[in-house]
Structures are given as C-alpha cells and as structure tokens.
Amino acid sequence: MKPLLVLIAILAAGAPLCAAWALDPARLADPAQQARYEVLIHELRCVQCENNTLADSDAWIANDVRRQIRDMLVAGKSDQQIKNYLVSRYSEFILFRPAYSWRNAWLWLLPVALLIFGVSIAVRVIKQRARLVDNEDDADVLPS
Amino acid sequence: MNPRFLIPLAVFAALVVVLAVGIHHSPEVGVLQSPLVGHQIPDWELPILTDPSKTLGSRELKGQWYVLNYWGTWCIACREEHAALLAAQRDARVQIIGVDWKTDNPTEDADALEWLAKLGNPYRQVVSDHDGRTAIDLGVAAAPESFLVNPEGVIVFKQPMGITPQVWKREFLSRLPPHSTVPPAAPGAS
C-alpha cells in the first residue's frame, strides 16, 4: 500500500511539470490573462490529436491554436468570445465541456436520470432481499 | 411468464439501436465537420508562392468558383491525393487554388516548388500559409482539406481529408454548374 501511495505522490507532483513542459516558453505579461489562458487551454481540444487538450499537446496545430488564444487574450477578447470563435471554425467538438443548450440537454440530464433509475432499482432489490432474509429467519424458527 | 423479465431485454435492444445509429452517423475518426459550410468563407489573403511580393485572396476570387486545397510537402496524404488533383485539373471544370501550409518545415517554400516541378502542378495558383493563422481562421485541422467555394464566396462543400476521383466526381463536380470551365487568366498573376 505504501509504495503505491509514494508512486501516486510522485506522479501527482510530476503532472504539472509535464504540463508546463508542453507549454509555451513565453508567459503573458498580465498574470490574470495568463491564468485565463491556462484554464482555456485545459478546456479546449487539440483538433489533430483529438483526445488531448490544447495544454497536453505539442502538435504544431495545438501550438498555433494556443498562439491564437494568447493573441486574442492580449487583444482584450473575453473567454466566451475566444470559445465562440474557435467553435465557429472547428465546431462544438473543440469544447471538452459541452455548452448548456437544448440540443445538449440530454447529455447533461441523462446521467442524472440514469442515476435515479439505478438507485431506485437498487433500493427495490435491497428491500426485497431484506424481506427474504426475514422470511428465512422465520422459517428457521418455525419448524421444530 | 412475467412480462417484467422482458424489461432488461427491451432496454438492451434500445441500447443496441442507439449505439448502431451513433456508429452509423459518426464521421470517420479524426474528421471534423466544418461549421463553415453554407457560410461565407472567412476573408483570406496570402502571398503567392512563386512571387511572394504579390498576394491572392478571397476578394479577388469573388465571382468565380474555386477549390481551395490545403496541402504541404510534409503531408503523406497530400502525396496520395496529388494524382486525383492532376486528373481534376485536366478536366478543367473548376480552378484549384493550392495553399501550401508551412507548419514547422523551415524549407517548405523551396520544397513546395520542387514538389510541383517534379510531380506536376494541379493548381491554377499556389499561395503560402506561413504562420498558420489562415488555417485556423478556415478551421483547417489537418492537411489535406479542401473547400469548394461558389462565386458568392459561400463554402458549398468541405472535404475534410484527401480528394479521390470518386469524391471529386460525387462531391465537387456534382455541385458545379453544368458547363463550368476554368477562367482564362490565373488569379493574382497580373
């Protein structure tokens, strides 16, 4: 158990290091913009290596899109404007966190619905089992 | 038999239907559908490969049909596509404008000229995207990608991967007016 914890600790400590590695040498002059930049690149998909975020990817297209985001931040664009721009070019697929919209409602509501469905089944099964156990106890006691 | 036992079966059947529809409709892996189709092409203007002091852009091409083909000498799929583009150029139904995408190849301009001299030039004109900004503005994710643009400047079709003779016939020629031809003068050459 202990070596496993140590391993996890080492990996956890190394994770931000790896992320910083893939990232760009230049930081934005404004720390607030830099912070928004870090959040954005973790929420947007690299369009070439599709299961990576922009932050994880060292593909040149990811590099170019990161530069685009930095330029737009410096130009005073809001996070939403930047996301809207990229969605208008690459479709909603580029967002790792899908937008709340009627079209996407099922995406957000289905897990909740499934959870409620699953819990209700579990509760019923548990109640039935409990009743069975009671009956068995009675059965043990009765014949004698 | 208690009909309740059929519920899991029904749920399973519903799941199969949902997944089958999903698989059937999902585009090929790695292919994004462009939200720009049906809309005005974002304004672009790029230097001409053979004469970088001149530029060509969407404004000069207004009033003409054209295919905008993103490619690069580093791109293997572009090499595979090349023969289909040459055949398309011989048909002369629509002008193909090549965009040579530099990405991280420092000698891309020279490599591109060599490629065209060696393998043949299917393009009416070739422009260079050196910094990749136009690629992002057009929503290009990976070469080769091609846009079919009508005289109003609207993208009527986007091929998010290589063109094959079948794709050319089915997706490009079918959308052109019946007797379309390539305009006499190459754009941006004057």
Secondary structure blueprint with pairings:
The complex is a heterodimer of chains A (144) and B (190).
Chain A: H1 2-22, H2 31-43, H3 60-74, H4 79-90, H5 105-141
Helix pairs in contact in A: 2-3
Chain B: H1 6-25, E1 45-48, E2 51-57, H2 58-61, E3 66-71, H3 76-91, E4 95-101, H4 108-119, E5 125-129, H5 133-137, E6 145-149, E7 155-159, H6 165-172
Descriptive labels:
heterodimer; A: 144 residues; mainly alpha; Helicase, Ruva Protein, domain 3; 2 domains; 5 helices; 68% helix; elongated; B: 190 residues; Glutaredoxin; five-stranded mixed β-sheet; 6 helices; 34% helix
Give a verbal description of the structure.
The complex is a heterodimer of chains A (144) and B (190). Chain A contains 5 helices and no strands. Chain A is mostly helical. Chain A has 2 domains: 1-99, Cytochrome C biogenesis protein (Helicase, Ruva Protein, domain 3, Orthogonal Bundle), CATH 1.10.8.640; 100-144. Chain A is elongated, with a radius of gyration of 25 Å. The two termini of chain A are 50 Å apart. The relative contact order of chain A is 0.07. Chain B is an alpha/beta fold and 190 residues long. Chain B has one domain: 3-Layer(aba) Sandwich (Glutaredoxin), CATH 3.40.30.10. Helix content of chain B is 34%, strand content 21%. Chain B has helices spanning 6-25, 58-61, 76-91, 108-119, 133-137, 165-172, and strands spanning 45-48, 51-57, 66-71, 95-101, 125-129, 145-149, 155-159. The longest helix of chain B is centred in the first third of the chain and has 20 residues, at 6-25. Chain B is elongated, with a radius of gyration of 21 Å. Chain B starts with 5 loop residues before the first helix and ends in an 18-residue tail after the last helix. Chains A and B meet through helix 3 and helix 4 of A and helix 5 of B.
